[in-house]
Amino acid sequence: MSLMMKLVVLSSPEIKKHLATELAQIQKKIEIAEKSDSASCWLEMREEKLTLVHPLGELSLDFLKDARYQRRGHRGKNELIAKALGSQRGVKSIFDGTLGLAEDAIFLTQLGFQVTGCERSPWIYLLLKDAERRARAENPEFSLQIQFGSAQEIFAVMQRASPDERPAVIFIDPMFPEKKKTALPRKEMQIFRDVVGEDEDASMLFEYALKATREGVVVKRPLKAPALQPTSTKVNVAHSFEGKTVRYDLYSVK
After folding, report:
1. What is the pLDDT of residues 91-110, one digit of tens each?
2. pLDDT at residue 3 tops 50
3. Is 217 helix (H, G, I), strand (E, B) or coil?
4. Taking a C-beta distance cutoff of 8 angstroms, is the pair 42, 75 a contact?
5. pLDDT, tens digit, for every residue of 158-213?
6. Helix, coil or strand: residue 196
7. CB 205 within 8 A of CB 229
8. Predicted pLDDT at 153
9. Are 56 and 190 in contact (CB under 8 A)?
């Protein structure tokens, strides 16, 4: 995990004004400090948009305007991810345990799912919440709900809830391993990987998810990658929905 996870650096009172609630949640676990000359990265407002300034460049999010969130001509319930999550059998409620930059989560809302997701990196969480704030200002019906925290901790709480209170399906997308002997990923993904770190606890996260869902867990994997296995629970893939480069493995708990 990146050392930057230990500190959120702020450079503008405007951030505190717009994200006061989110900062209060983060401050329970992580120290928040003002920008200093020795800071290697920090958050600041640029043109009314929260931006992460990093040695590799800058990262900000816009759910309504960034090309990564605009998927035209989708096939609705016939999309592979929609089939894997159960749209054709009436599933509407999804919990995304690995929200990341929320590309899949936003797409799922466009497909008609009600999506709640969590992000454990305070840097990425604040960028997501800033993008959410701006999206809701333009579109009051914007439906993605974003939580801060470890998915394992959130799943542990879900496990103690009654079945009716648990999410119908949990979606997890562990970070794909970087390919060797290929061009480096785009700069934004390099920044994201440095801030978030690798998903070394993917198998443990998967096991927590299996015990927290009402119907099943869908895992996004590279097409040729082995199936993700929990650390102790024996469960097999019920069905795989394969695309050209990725697949969605469905694990049923029914």
Report:
1. 999 999 999 999 999 999 99
2. no
3. strand
4. no
5. 999 998 999 999 999 987 665 554 556 688 888 988 888 777 788 889 999 999 99
6. helix
7. no
8. 94
9. yes
Residue 110 class from Cβ within 10 Å (0-12 exposed, 13-18 middle, 19+ buried)? Answer: middle
In this structure, what DSSP letter does residue 222 have?
A: E
Q: Do the bridges between strand 114-119 and strand 93-96 make them parallel or antiparallel, or are there none, so unpaired? A: parallel
Give percent of the chain with pLDDT exceeding 90.
Answer: 56
Q: Which amino acid is at 79?
A: E
Rg (CA), the chain: 18
Nearest to 106 by CA among 69, 67, 73: 69
Q: Please name the residue that has the structure tokens 């991810």.
A: 81
Supply 227's token pair. 């199936």
CA 108 and chain centroid, separation: 12
Which top CATH class is 62-252? Answer: alpha beta
Which pLDDT score, from 0 to 100, does residue 247 have? Answer: 96
Q: Is 76 left (phi over 0), alpha (psi -120 to 50) or beta?
A: left
Q: Check if the beta carbon of residue 175 is closer than 8 Å to that of residue 196.
A: yes
Give me the residue spans of the domains in the chain: 62-252
CA 197, 203, 204 angle in degrees (round to 5)?
90
The one-letter amino acid at 65: K
125 vs 123: CA distance, rounded Å: 6
Distances (CA, A) of 187 to 59, 199, 240: 9, 19, 31
Strands 31-34 and 7-10: parallel
Query: pTM of the predicted model, to two decimals?
Result: 0.90
